[in-house]
TrEMBL record:
Pfam families: DUF4825, Peptidase_M56
Name of protein: Signal transducer regulating beta-lactamase production, contains metallopeptidase domain
DUF4825 domain segment(s): 492-590
Organism: Maledivibacter halophilus
Transmembrane parts of this sequence: 6-25, 37-55, 126-147, 321-341
Swiss-Prot/TrEMBL keywords: Membrane, Transmembrane, Transmembrane helix
Domain annotation Peptidase M56: ranges: 8-311
Amino acid sequence: MNETIRLLLSLSLSGTILGILLFAIKPFIRYRLSKTIQYYIWIVVLLRLIIPFSFEDSIMNNLFYNNNSPQNINKQIIVDSFEGTTDNTIDSSGTPRAEENIIIGAYNNDVNHNRYFKDILNEAGLYIWLIGLIIALTVNLAGYVRFLKHLKKGYRPATDEENRILETLLDGRKNVKLLRNRFVPTPMLIGIMRPCIIIPDIDFSKKQLKNILLHEISHLRHFDIGIKWMTMIAASIHWYNPFMYFIKKEINNACELACDEAVIKNLSSAEKQAYGETLISVIAENRYSTSVLGATMCEEKKTLKERLVAIMKHNKKSKTIMVVSIILLGLIIYGGLYLGAGIGKKENIPPNIYINIEGEEIKNAMVGSYSWENDGEHIQADSDHPIKFQYKSNNIVSASRKDKLIIDTQKLKEDKKYDFEVEEIDVYKDGKLIKFEDIESNFMDGELYINTPHDPGEYIYVLRLNFKDKGTVSYGFVVRVDMLSYDLEEISKYKTPYVGDNSKVSNIASLLPVPNRYFTQRYISMETGNKPYGLTIYYELASDKKYKGKWPITSSNSIVEMNSRKNALVVFSMIDNLDKVTFTFRNSKSEGELEESKYNTAFTFQRSTFEKEYGDLSELVDNLALLEDALTKKVIVKESEIDYFDISKEIKLGNFSYNGTDDVEKLVYDTEIEKHKTSREGFTIIAPHIFGSYEEDNKLKVFVTTFSSHYRLYGKVLSQEGGSVIPAAITYVKNSDGKYSLEEYKEAMDGSDFASSIKEFCTMPVSGKEIKDLADKILDHYGDYEDIMKLERKNLIKHLKANNQYGISLYQEHYKEPVELIPLT
């Protein structure tokens, strides 16, 4: 449930419970307790409705956050059963897949999509509440403004005598106006900053006028106009709560009773009677009630009787009654605090961290040992080393070579976000600690980015994170590089002896990992009329993807074919009488129906082929560990026989060196190489676009955007390991020998500060004067820097030739398939 909705409902429920309690005891306290105390009690209810203060152990907080621990909802999608299909063709995408997994992975294992629709309703509920709030506030404020405009037409000043009476009663307060108005039906006080008492433009006796003014001045002294505004705001916030309107009415009534009590407490019986008669005379003249944001002397005839009875029964309360009143007020305050509100609970355990590849399924890490501070309490928890953890599918991330792992403490928007620092990152393969050059991590927009290893295989990542002022936590998760991840336990629930079992077969198909991230599985068709019995699983382009490789896919050794082969093993193991399975692909989205002619890439596998390798495939389902092991063997995966990146064949080259004659360009190339070169193996190529150089006194400032790339050469194959495009301002100082030395290198900042940081450094080197239009030129170029991409390739080829490297090809992936070798020299 949305946090705002929880808070609103908890406040509404707390206030309602207090209100019901007060209505229940009202008959017993109506004429026994002070009206002022009763008014104060209702103000407590009002404050409970609008102030989100609460102790963590309050009833409402426990009610609304009783089961708010993070859920491990990271299994593969499960689709519903399908009935009534024709021609053995099924749309196996199931109930709409949360719009293709809106937040991919967040709604997995949500069989009937209840969680997705619940979240949609929660979001819609928030917008409905906001619309209601805006309408309620608009109606109240617009009505108030209209009323004030209406009053302006009927004002006339009070007489001098009336003003003297007011001054006497105000006891020195000067900022209150008294006006007559022919449109007001009853005396009233309006305005908080500039209060004004308005009386009907009719004749009042001196005694009546005094009673009227005493009443309105009492409202003024008790800040009742502010309470009226607070009540209106509370009613607008809780417009959906019908009980709120009874509470609002009761607060207004309690306000008038308290005001009457304040006026008459020092009056004689005769004066009380005169005050009551004034009320009767005012109500007699009042032809309609008003709900303006002001304190009126009399709004409804229905409440007049109660007020008159209260006036006549008023007497000085005994000490016992006063003590009881204070105790009751204290109990109501305590009740309001005890009921509390849904403010959420502080985490007394470390938060989950979530891992995903951009656009892929979200997984969560397992928590290991930690040292944690919570409300002054230190918690120390020890566990096995994460390499010994039993990881499940929701802890396993499928990745490609050179992918970036994104680490965050938020899975959904309403999750709490924690700030953390990385203390240590270890990567293990086959139980051994390994090192690879791109393990370095970096933060962007509060998320941690970590590279994946180059080599295919299964890796365990162990992270030690430091959470500010909380403690340190170890986490573990698995990354499978160029390997599919299966939730075999879930898939096995749909094992069937018959390929004609529509429901189970469609569920198996939908639970298979897609052979390529660009596609999504949509339809299946079954051939059950005659043997061999067959199954075709159809894949189409995902809604947010565009396939960048060569099409159609023809290579029998492509990643798509290899991953389809894995899926075939799983399908044959789960469907006993299936003889062949075909995985077919189209490079576009379907229009809601199966058009077989659009699918022009297909891979077909025979059961007999797998049985020769594994024997009885049904035995693999009885022992899922065997099936898992089979899926990771190279004989099934058929990894490419070409080892492009044989470390033993690596050729060491130095970094690019500029050999031109331009002095400024040489300065820039030398500086950028020093700035972007890496301590790791390989070499660096740079390509700068110089926007201009500005000399002032003994300083030279150059503005440049540089494309830098890092490469490693394995025999005749070149691998690009990383790169960046960064605008910068470089300031040099001229030495006594006429040469320049670097004084300052200032890069553009990331994120929202990018443009402003460029504008900030586009100044002269000494005077600091802004260089007109330079920042705009840099920003415009950053939107299309094809020139430095071409220059970088030119410099790369030049560097290879300068080092006598010919016949070199650049290894190029399009999300790893199909692989291209681009000739360079």
